[in-house]
Design goal:
Blueprint: E1 9-14, H1 29-44, E2 48-53, H2 56-62, H3 71-95, E3 100-104, E4 113-114, H4 117-125, E5 129-133, H5 143-154, E6 158-163, E7 168-169, E8 181-182, E9 184-186, H6 187-192, H7 200-208, E10 213-217, H8 223-228, E11 235-238
Parallel strand pairs: 1-2, 1-6, 2-5, 3-4, 3-5, 6-10, 9-11
Antiparallel strand pairs: 7-8, 10-11
Length: about 240
């Protein structure tokens, strides 16, 4: 008997770096394909899925040139990078037979839809994947904050943050072998211990709107589907920090 999804509607937050594979910057085709397949598999379970994708993989390649650019303009450059990633993932998802819509917080009508909350909800109700691009549309806000904002607006049951490790640790486990892994945390513990899972405004938004954050590894095949059904390895961040 197949596992039953624990969540009805989720937002998957991907970092741009997670799509690089072993490259210095840009997109790794095999990695994008695998991520798209995992999103497709979760969608086929009847879960409504939306995504927010960072832009670090592309912006890293132009960051040297942007070093002398003012912060606001540099942030807009980063937002445009997220649109490029969104269009790439959309293309692969549609090749896999999944109807997908990209909605940008910065209107660019020739390539994607503008962000309209009610339309995005309707797309998901019809089984389409919605990818939110261009962050919040404002400089000085990260794509983590955009993820918490969109998840709150969409009425998502959870934010699933795909990272390089299988949960939240007290320090970077790749640099500190004594780092402690947490199964569950409260929002307040994340802030008070400065664990930097997501930036503070994202954590505050998720806490205020009671949207739990589940942190899992992008590199474990099938992990997205496992976490959606309450299985696999992940750290849950919520009001009570409870798991299960």
């Amino acid at each position: 008997m197949p596992a039953v999804p624990k969540y009805r509607r989720v937002l998957l937050k991907l970092s741009g770096e997670g799509l690089m594979g072993n490259q210095a910057y840009g997109l790794d085709a095999a990695t994008v394909e695998r991520v798209a397949e995992e999103v497709r598999d979760v969608s086929r379970m009847g879960v409504q899925v939306c995504l927010v994708i960072g832009g670090g993989n592309i912006f890293r390649g132009v960051s040297a040139a942007a070093a002398s650019v003012e912060r606001a303009s540099a942030d807009y450059m980063g937002m445009l990078a997220t649109v490029m990633n969104a269009l790439a993932v959309q293309s692969v998802l549609e090749r896999l037979g999944v109807q997908t819509r990209v909605q940008s917080a910065i209107p660019m009508a020739t390539v994607c839809e503008p962000y309209i909350r009610r339309r995005a909800i309707r797309h998901m109700e019809k089984g389409r994947i919605v990818i939110f691009a261009a962050g919040t549309g404002n400089p000085f806000f990260t794509t983590d904050t955009a993820a918490a904002l969109r998840a709150s607006e969409m009425g998502c049951d959870a934010i699933l943050k795909a990272t390089q490790v299988d949960g939240v640790y007290s320090a970077d486990p790749k640099k500190d072998p004594s780092a402690v892994r947490y199964d569950s945390l409260t929002f307040q513990e994340v802030l008070s211990r400065d664990l930097r899972v997501m930036d503070t405004s994202a954590i505050a938004l998720a806490r205020e709107n009671k949207v739990p954050i589940l942190v899992f590894s992008l590199h474990n095949p099938g992990a997205f589907a496992q976490v959606v059904t309450g299985g696999g390895r992940y750290t849950i961040i919520s009001d009570g920090g409870e798991r299960g």
